[in-house]
Amino acid sequence: MKSLKQYLVEHICRYGELNMPHIGKDEISEDLDDFVDRIFAPESLGGLKQVIKLIARVRNISFHSAQSIMKELNLAMYIFDALHKYSFDIEDRYISNEYHRTKYQKGWCSEYPFYVVLLKSYEYNLTIKSCELFATFINHYYSVLDTLRDKDLARESSTREEDACSNFRLFMRTNVAELNFVRETIPNTTGDSPAAIAHQLDQYLTSKETWPYLPHKNYLRILCHFFSNDWKPAKHITRRRPAIDRVPKRYADPIAIPIVGAHNDIFALIPDEPLIPNSEGLNDDDQFAAQTFVINNRDVDTKRDKTELLDTAIPFNKHVQNRTAIDVTASVRRSHNMGIQNTQLLMPEELNFLIEKLILMGHRPGNREMAIVIWLMLLLSKSIEEIQSLVVFTDLSKKQQGLYIDELGQGWWFFYVSHSAKAKLDNEGLREVKEEVFTPCPEFLQKLIVENRQTQLTGPILKEKDSKIITSSLVRKLKKLSDRHASARVSVRRLVNFVSYYLNSTDVIDPIFIDYSYAVHMYTTRVARSYANVRDDFRTEKLCKLWQNVEQDIQRYSGKPLPFSLFELRHFDQTNPFMGSSFTPTNDAISTLINSLTKRVSASIPGFQHRLLDMIDYHNAFTAYTAWMLLFGTGYRAAWNPLPTFALFLPSLNLMGISDKDDSDFSHSRIVAVPNVLVSQLKEYKRHLGCLRSLLRVLLPKMCSTIDNIVDVQQNVLNFNHTQATQWYKVIRNSRKQQGPFFFLHRQGNSVVATNLSPSELVNYCKNTIQLPANAGRHWLKSHLLEKNICPELINFQMGHWQAGEVPLGHYSALSHVEAINEIVPVLDELFEEVGWKSLKSVIS
What span, in angstroms and rounded, lies between the C-alpha atoms of 39 and 79? Predict the structure, then answer.
């Protein structure tokens, strides 16, 4: 049985063959061993994926911190690229789960404490400062490792290595206001030494104003010892205890015995240690008389009902209350994927007033930084905490999210675009995508930021480090501006969500262009962003269209144009023009797929005698061609048994019912438009099945009876009432068990069996020619609909990417399905013609 490390070496070797042929297997294995040994990983390498994700997360925020961490961990760049840019999938489910694990096993905290710090990094609150602190921690950890593992300095229950690693892990994870403040301010500068950091931590510890109450204060005390490396041997204090321990024993696993003559639900609970009372009836460790505890109407063999009410405790400490409070509103929105659809959109009148005030604020040095914050919230949809992570830089070799000023003095916003799902190394013909995105910054805003930086150009955009001070100052300023204006109050929420609200109201562009440009996860793109692949120049053109519409709205209100442009159309010179989904095939790859499938159909045409084996080969080839066309034309997900019944296909209206991702309420069932070529092909495929059953009736009567139900399904369902139709739909929708129209025939001994079409079978059918992902058609369709300037609402209609409250099949929906389909079908026909999909006629029909 192969180990995870062997699979990793094979994966990196395949990456090396494609990108770095000069690196051999021995060198790869040696570099991987150096990395694994350096991070003190367990033999199973469980959770190694989290270490790769850590580097990617830190790189998105602080490039030089990521470089420092990679250097300290002995992680070669090509190993990181192989595991980050491509999907590492293993058929062995156990090993795959081990690689992606997010929890440490029992004993890891003491045996592999540093590896646990890396493994749990997905829980950390990462900012520029915390990334720099993380990098410094790792660097200092290796320099003082001998001291940390010194047995003379260890405590009775743990080593100093365990203490330092566990406290740093909890410090980075704990979301307490005071600790958040420390992570945002320490270290003071990038080059601070460990001793300087220890001194800064000690200042916070000794400041009574900063720490009026903090139960997590010990985290900082341990980190002070770590960075100053002044550990001392632990003092073992023997505490005096009374002769009789007054604390009653607690038994975790009580024993239940039946009571003779009692009801079956009544048991006697006794401790798992024998109770031997003394002569006075008292136990040695108990001040109460021995007695039998009886629990009534309770089955001790079953687990406690989670809905059962428990004893409640009211915390009176306000700090404890803040830590245990639950944001119900945020939880509901997150669980239902909802956006705030209300009247919070800034109107042209308010925008005109706000921009006039921002121009005046920009001329005053004292208010300049506040004006920058408001502009960034409005134009980039960034919160105050996110703005604090933005920097100004001029060296592309040390890029991190923020404003890049090139050699010509032009400003570009730089962000990373990454997806959790990655293409496999075996995939062919897919668009190469980039993670680095440069978006032009308007000239007026760039000048404002440069003036605020004064003599030191590079560094954080904001000078103020404390987000609380920025927030309170901003709230006061906005309140003051709103009070002087007759309209509604301008708030932080309305500024940050302006673009989101504007796009919801106007549908000028798809929100994905904002998402990719400024690394904001807008609520309308939480799912849709995974399928979009767009050209870089097309993205900037869309952004220009958005801000031109905003400027026109303001001009129509004020009667005069703005003194500057909110967006300038410029293109950053990069070789790779695409960004977004890594599963989107090129048109050439699709043409190769079509030619391969067409040749398989032609090559498998049965002879005059129609032998059974020839019939099987021809049916499978014809089915594969039709199924691939179905996935590309409808945006079907890679699901088993696509189009489970012909009753969901209405050729006269060019529509089809799809249920490829659904629940008990059918909330994701949808109707999609079908291109005319696919309509003709599905009609022909239905005739093909009708003739196939006639040819195989004598040899395979049972199978042909099933095909009868598939072909003649319309006659059976037209007489269903609502209840019957609902029950029927629950059975057939997206079912692996129920036989659907798309199936492959296989020889099984002397008989022939039919199996529903699976995504893996469809991919493997043409793997000798080209190997595309099973859901490549869905990615291709979404990306090309964006390029064809289709209304975002219609794209979401076709793809099924609607949010809470956007249900086209609902009774309250005002969307006309017929009009939507009539608008989409011509575009689908055009796309099919570009790549060469054609309707094939079955030779047996």
Answer: 15
